[in-house]
Amino acid sequence: MTRLMLILAGLVLALFAGALVIGPANAPYWDSLSALFVDDGTPLTLVMREIRLPRAILALAIGASLGMAGAAMQGYLRNPLADPGLIGVSSSAALGAVIALQTGLAAAYAFGLPLAALVGAVLGVLLVLALAGPRGASITLILAGIVVSALAGALTSLVLNLSPNPFAASEIVFWMMGSLADRSMDHVWLALPLIGLGLALLATLARGLDALTLGEDAAQALGINLTRLRLALVVGTAAVVGASTAVAGTIGFVGLVVPHLLRPFVGARPGALLWASALGGAAMLLAADILVRVVLPTKDLKLGVVTALVGAPLFLHLIYKTRRQMA
Amino acid sequence: MTLLSVSGLTIQRRKRTILRDVSFSVGPGELVGLIGANGAGKTTLMRAVLGLLPAEGDSSLAALPQKARAQQAAWMPQAREVAWPVSVERLISLGRLPHLAAGQAIGAADRAAIDGAIADMGLEPFRHRTATNLSGGELARVLIARTLAQDTPLVLADEPIAGLDPAHQIQTMRLFAGLAQAGRSAIVSIHDLGLAARHCTRLILLGEGRLVADGAPGDVLTPDNLTDHFNITAHFARSEAGLIFQPLDVVGMD
């Protein structure tokens, strides 16, 4: 258990360092790292501090967000196929961003896009909470999430449909694929407080999620306040996923695959899976973002495309494993 | 001293009254069998008593704050849900959650309660097995052990012996009777009237949306009650081996 944490933490650290030293500037690894800490007056310091560092921090934070939110959602719904997008936050954040791109808000103000995405996420989560009702049952949350996702998806399509400007439309499509390219420290400062708050909130769920292994009735009788648990889950997920989507677009499969992959290593305990998935998600996104830069450095390969390309076969493998166990 | 007092409990769901004006109290050392035909409201009553369902009237348990309630009463629902492939030992250790402060790890007292519950239910060979791979009866025993590990003065169990083999049915009822002898109490809903008659110190019969009878097994399982509320006739005898109850025939069902 602690060994797993050490292995994962070591992996994240190594990949974080890798994300810092690998890139098109092609400087020697050691020079890159020293340029990060000591301003030597060369452009390398600028590259390290203004380009690679924010990108690596965002990959780490967003990966951790998606991993932990996925583990929390799966634990709460007691379903290994649940994913943080289920409550409609990522689609409503995407809708906000798409509207910003379409109206020119994104071009007019530097932070027009991420702020519009955050507004979308907040509206989406308020709608989900209102639809799901006051009691703590999970089924109403799923239904409310599906409604909000579908609505946000339909409105996004509508914006694309009515877009008179083909450039805006293609920009929207590319943005929705998810990327960390050209993000600045300002993006980090915008996303990090929300992500920190959300992760702290999600981390409090460990015990309640463990108790939910026995079902909602038994968990309540074990002293777990399901109404409060669901509220913390929804608000925490909305904070991390909303902030992530706002600065990086929609990145799929991390929240679905990582908890699934790590579950056997924590004895299937949903509480322990939270931190393991946060580390695992960070590692996966850092690795994917390195891959983006190494495989097709000139083509601006999108991060969300890579996570889906890596995630889908991984998931396929897990399905085969499950099938073998059931046979 | 009473462990539970319920007075004037009325439960409505979807504008239908399930139970009206139910009152009873449970003291230490009782094994209360909750009996009644399908749909009589046994599960509903237990959930309302625990505060899991909104109800009018008073239940001393439902009035407690959630954490205090979890230290006072353990609940084994009828649905034998285990969502994740956790080990038997981990599953049973969930019963200790109400006794742990925030961030507190499992200590020596918790470990003793867990080991005790595993020994009581004869689960030592299963300790490291995966709970989701067990048979229905084995899983039921694991979930009973989870309830015992909670180490509460009162245990409420919804059909705990359904699906168990005869030996484990008798063993489980003896175990609950043992709890009662040790000064704790249990309320179990049960369909096997023979086992209920032999092992429970007291029976509560639900029917027609109310509490019909409450008393010693011999006083509750009267021919009239059996015909009116279970549509059966039965043979009932006192022998040196204890009460013997055998349902014989169906009456008045058309």
TrEMBL record, chain A:
Keywords: Cell membrane, Membrane, Transmembrane, Transmembrane helix, Transport
Localisation per UniProt entry: Cell membrane
Lineage top rank: taxon: Bacteria
Predominant location: membrane
Assigned GO CC terms: plasma membrane
A single GO molecular function term of this UniProt record: transmembrane transporter activity
Membrane association type: Multi-pass membrane protein
TM region positions: 53-73, 85-105, 111-132, 139-160, 188-209, 229-262, 274-295, 301-320
Annotated family: Belongs to the binding-protein-dependent transport system permease family. FecCD subfamily.
Name by which UniProt lists this protein: ABC transporter permease
Organism: Salibaculum griseiflavum
Automatic annotation (TrEMBL), chain B:
GO terms assigned for molecular function: ATP binding; ATP hydrolysis activity
Signal peptide coordinates: none
Keyword Cell wall biogenesis/degradation included in the entry's annotation: no
Keywords associated with the record: ATP-binding, Nucleotide-binding, Translocase, Transport
Recorded superkingdom: Bacteria
Ranges where the ABC transporter domain occurs: 4-233
Xref: InterPro entries: AAA+_ATPase, ABC_transporter-like_ATP-bd, ABC_transporter-like_CS, P-loop_NTPase
PANTHER family xrefs: HEMIN IMPORT ATP-BINDING PROTEIN HMUV
Role played: Part of the ABC transporter complex HmuTUV involved in hemin import. Responsible for energy coupling to the transport system.
Name of protein: ABC transporter
Species whose genome carries this gene: Salibaculum griseiflavum
